[in-house]
Protein 1
Amino acid sequence: MKSINKHNGKVVPLDMVNIDTDQIIPKQFLKRIERTGFGKYLFYDWRFKSDGSINKDFILNQEKYKNCSILVTGDNFGSGSSREHAPWALNDYGIEIIIAPSFADIFYNNCFQNGILPIKLDKKIVKEIINKSKNENGYKLNIDLDSQLIWDDSEEISIKFDIEKFRKYCLLNGLDDIGLTLKKENEIQQFESTRSLTGGVVKKIT
Amino acid sequence: MTNNPKTLFDKIWEKHLVDENEGQPSILYVDLHMIHEVTSPQAFEGLRLAKRKVRRPDLTVAVADHAIPTWKGRNTISDPIAKQQVETLTKNCDEFGVTLYDMHHENQGIVHVIGPDLGLTQPGKIIVCGDSHTSTNGAFGSFAMGIGTSEVEHVLATQTLRQFKPKTMNIHIEGSLPNGVTAKDLILGIIKHIGISGAVGHAIEYTGDAITNLSMEGRMTVCNMSIEAGGRAGMIAPDNKTINYLENKPFAPKGKDFEIAKKEWLDLRTDVGAQYDTKIIIDSNEFEPFVTWGTNPGMVAPITGKIPNPKHTVDEDEKSSISKALEYMGLKPDTKIQDIQIDRVFIGSCTNSRIEDLEAAAAIVKNKKINPNVSAMVVPGSTLVKKIAEKRGLDKIFQDAGFEWREAGCSMCLGMNPDILSPKERCASTSNRNFEGRQGKDGRTHLVSPEMAAAAAIAGHFIDIREL
């Protein structure tokens, strides 16, 4: 997994609450068996009209937000289906940081598995960032994961954000969870050797 | 009262701890890992690239359910990409030694329906699947949750999952459910009450007479939609109904083993005096037959109610959400729910496709015909459910009324197969999500119980089943 530390990028606002994973990546694209190439399907039903032409009204299609890498949005982003295709699509499109007052649990977890940094900020600050990115051309934010700081060039926004220590450590080092867990082979074997006793209810299902 | 009272959730969590370190996610052992074609191919590919094996194929079961067709006698998949995905599942299961129920197998069905069907789902287990509705299995007093594909790969490789411990939430329903109110109405009402992010970060335990009075299948309906309230999982403590349901199921323990298991299962309950992080009490009189009117499962109105008017909302976010939803749904504020005309009816999905659901819907359509403006289909949750239904003659009742009778699968719940709505078609659906485009681009979904869907199919619009 790629590591994240410092990031500087253009912000695109999606000023809505409860954006679900069906919107992030519609179901017709979940049939692909690859992990890459989902970016062109991101927010497909919003980015494209029924005839396949570009919906110029949708914010991601506006010239001003070309090459953005930071998405700022409302409460409960990523609700619904567990599809990891959602962070794959965001990442493939170029989004590396997502800022919202809150995230749905599974989506939040999935971000960390894919080198995307989801940042939870106070609703008031999120609104301020949304407004600035709407009103200023090429509005950018700087993020320093190590020091957990986020600020804009004018420093009108300058704030520390929270993140679990372990998640930060994994992102900073691009660590793969499986590799870490496999180092616990002894503990897993130990658990398995006593499992029928501790569980007592688990039958093999061969 | 014990000295250290614990919740049901805490007990299951502690029993599965492989390793625990301050500030890190715990490593939990997984008892049952169910997989399907949509969220597993990239996980197997990851294993292959890292030259890893499936650690416990004996605790892993795969099924094809999402992308397969449901037409009668299905023998091929016409969509080449879906075909490749299903074939990839077969190839991966062969290569890694995982049991697979493909679309021709008698055990095939929606992944969350077959776990209970087969007795794979048991109290006290940790059950995961790359699918958010895995919470269905919590009806048996297991900790069951949806995970992403990277986590699927993690479970395949290690049989464990890394998780930060969620908080616990008790949703207690005070009193018994009023007549004519189903398990589906109960969970829609709960989501209406706490909101679609009301349970984020929490594992929910449902308690109260309204919950324990439900059949096992009703409990599954409730736990199934825990994710629609944002919950990490939903669970109900096992009782004699749970035991009776599991006895003689193919994968349930047998004989003396069953007696031992039974004793342990019945011990799995929240101790008196145990504290939940959050407790919510809801009066059962709040529940009525419900219909969703918008584009998320929290946008719920009683059948006797009206479409809300954004003018009456103060919160700006909510105001714009309502307006946007009504525009998408093609509905006007203040319209009576019972005046909404429908084009399609879908009875199916992991929420409401079990035998009792089909029985309840069939009782309403028996000796009647569906409205000429409506087309309707029933998609049983599993091949086993279909077989039982046919034995009881339900297929004939539905077909005589004008319903299509299909093969088992996820079907139009998410329309990954050919079963989709056309733009602007309005559907009364027993599924779990009414998101934009969920059942087909620009399709309009109203979530209801099987009884309400069946009644709407006959009337051509929503009606109050209590008046039938």
Protein 2
Amino acid sequence: MKFADKLFLATTALLTVIFTAFGMWMLSSNFSRLLEREVERGNSESRMFRFLFETGYQSTEEFGQDYALKRTLDSITDSVERDGSHCFVLKEDGSWLYGEGYMDERALPEAAGELVVAVEDEKSCGYVIRKTDSGFFLLSVSAMQADSRIYLGICRELTDIYEIRQELLAQYRMALAFLLLLGGICIYVLSRYITRPISSLGKTAKRIADGDFGLRSGNRSTDEIGLLARDFDRMADRLVEQMEEKALEAKQKEDFTSAFAHELKTPLTSIIGYADMMNTMKMSEEERAEATYYIFSQGKRLESLSHKLMDLVSMDKNPIAFKPVQTKRLEENIRATVRPVWEEKKIHGKVEMDKGIIYGDEELLLSLFYNLLDNARKATDKGEKGFVLLKGTALRDGGYEVKVVDNGRGIPKEEISRITEAFYMVDKSRSRREGGAGIGMALCQKIIKLHGGTLQIDSRPGEGTVMKVVFPQKDNQKN
Amino acid sequence: MLRILIAEDEEPIANLIKMNLRRAGYDCVWAAEGERAADLMDSEHFDLVLLDIMLPGIDGYELMEYAGTLELPVIFLTALGSTENKVKGLKMGADDYLTKPFEIVELLARVEAVLRRYHKTEATLEVFDVIIDTASRSVTRKGEEIPLTMKEFDLLLLLARNRNIALYRETIYETVWGGEYMGQSRTVDLHIQRLKKKLGWDREISAVYKVGYRLELE
């Protein structure tokens, strides 16, 4: 059952109970007041009847009892029987002295008899309400004070007020039905309205579960459901993020594996192939020389690959010793290493580092800067106009920034985020020709990370690249 | 002469393939980039394309589609050895798929198998004065038939197709008899002896130390 339906049914049931109880209470209190008044009136009339009777009776005692009774009654009944009241007089033995006809018509003598028996012992009066085929009647009886063997009674018809009650009840039922219908519709609409965000959230969740990961509830209200929806959206965002991360990770892993297999199998194919040829074929001296050259060079390629991989792996295992490294020393070292290469390739290069200190491992830092400069040098494609620059700046917050700039071919925007992946090469054939295996930048990234630094790459295809490495001051480093 | 296009960005491997295919009597053209390979396919006639998948520029899969439209037989030659890659390559219409590193004999056998499927190999081979007719499976010398058993004929064909290449006993056994080679060297040796005697090629089929046999054609 839907929550909205539950809400609707519960509220409607409660409303029904409250309305019914309240209506009943009102009707019955109204009715009992009416009834009370009637009884009061009956009783007082009965008392008045007795009083009149007793007064009249005493004064006519000398003519015999029955005659006296008759006379007395004749003189007073007219004044008593007003406003629908009827008198009746009974003797103790059940014989009627007056009003038998009226009572008989309405099948009341039996009730009067019973009432007389009930009143007999007490001196006071009594009353009873009786329902017969002709309606409701109030009988009020009192024994004559002087002669208790005679009972004087009043009979009033109450059918009216019972009818009024029935009428009111019917009206109230109608009103209740109308009220409940109206209220029910309102509650139904309201419960739908209130629970709509919940069901819409449910639908959203279901669709997300079915694979529509981009979907969000978009609920912006500030109530609990709105908060829940927002938390739900946040949860979905996080999950999607995680999922994408995992997918990217898996893809990078797969790329790494296939690239690694490729890098390994390519030189192996040549080595095995040429060795196979030398083993199984008659070859000319020239061919043999070619084959051995390829076997050697491809073997070297494998060796360099294994070295770089070892570096990459061993850096994870051996914690580096952090020492303050003078940047001036680094500057000299780098200059000495790269100058001959630049001269040979005929490009302009400059290494300039402010006086400062980087906390880290000197060997690794040298390897990092050398790699970055080497990449920059390889990227230059403008012949004699090519230039490469390494600029070190001491930062005011105690950190140190190194920028490596070139005016080479640049890196396409969509490739920038990938160049630090192992084996990733922007231009595979060019990189190969220059002896690259696509590990250099992965190595650089790792060294920077170990030093707690950050790498930022800014590049415009055809214009050049700026690689900015920032080392934090000592306190901010991880180790 | 049959022409083969080698689309391969690694120079040492391209050279290796070229050397061996030339020895086996094919004409080879090498393209180191995808674009160059596509241009060549367009402008020149080839009987077969050997295609590397990880090529710079246009990659092997795209070239495969291109070769498909030209109805060129294609053998993928790649380091991507996963079943997924193989299935993808073959589903795209490649005739065969060879993973690196490969053995030269295997390369030659596959090249020949694909060419045979396209009826591009010559039906007859001539070695010295002996003519081998692959269609009628007969061997004649100056019009005179030399009677050979089925296995002997297969053996001769294998040697003749891999002239000047020393064949391992394993390779010979697996090609002619089929099944795993588990040191049944006597079977191979015995058949070689009989073949030598029937053809009178005592010197021409020579034993190669630690390898097997080679049909020498000087």
Protein 3
Amino acid sequence: MKITRKRFLQLSGLSLIAVIAKKLVRGVASVSASEGGAKKTRWGMAIDLQKCRRKDGCNLCIKACHSSHNVPHFADGRHEIKWVWKQSFEDVFPFAQTQYTRDVFAGVPVLLLCNNCDDPPCEDACAVGATWKRDDGVVMMDWHRCIGCRYCMAACPYGSRSFNWQDPRPAISAIHPDFPTRTKGVVEKCNFCEERLAKKLSPLCVENCEEKALVFGDLEQPDSEIRQVLRSRFALQRKPELGAGPSVYYLT
Amino acid sequence: MNDRPFIVIGLIVFVAFVTTPIWRGVAARNVALAAPEIKVPAQEKHCVAPVSYMRTSHMHLLNEWRTGVVRSQQRQYTAYDGKVYEISLTRTCLSGCHGSRQEFCDRCHNYNGVATLNCWECHNDKPTARSEP
């Protein structure tokens, strides 16, 4: 195919105009989107470690969550499904200890749940769009869509996701009628009680803690309870150096 | 050319075998098939959409409901007659109206040979209290 110099210049000019027009449209769209989303929400949680370990062996939050969300209990640890769970301090904060605190805090349980990250690595890893971050910061899952490839589990730096190796229903002692169970071959995790957030209720773990060790609220609102707590107390995030931006904070 | 009768017979057998489904269909047309007996809800007169639509397209509606709740937090459905329903398979469809999965969903699905009904592998098929939106 032969092309004249004139035609070549015409085509180049047109391409240039098209590229500039696209950039302009994108720019205008992003400006109007950020104006529209002025009232941003980002749900977050602060866990007071002192209050949390006040009662030895207390797991009211875990019980409330797992029974309401139909989380199965398998005797075999390899099949364990967990939304909220406890792990020892030195595993959770390996670099947040000195040689002196090590003696005191070794083996002390710390409450864990999905961090509902600002930039969730699980979302990037999911090949089928079954997990994503909502506008309010909740990292949501579509169990209908999950194909069980477990890439998200490999991507999650916090071990917040579990895989159903077996049919979970026989392992649920009493199925809660208002929440679906999951099925074999699906990944699951804490959903920050999004079904309760829709009814303007706080998560079950927060509500069922007798020590009021968990504070839940909007991180975007400067006067919310959680922001006040985070201003007044020293707080840790898990593995902040990874840049995922956890929404769960630990008050020391 | 002595094999001609064998070839012809073989061809006839082959054609008859390959077209068996057609013959079976022709034979079955004379059998009157009773429509499945479906339990119609007693307390409600209307579904969330006209019956003709629900018969042909309930699966699309349920898919829309699912996508709406999970992906865009759309938890209420305004029906064609203006009535607002909570979007919930267990609470609205099952508990609110149809009552029994076995006597409603399964009967028609089994009759039509579309038995891959996997909603209930996760969703609760025992009727619960219906919650108002």
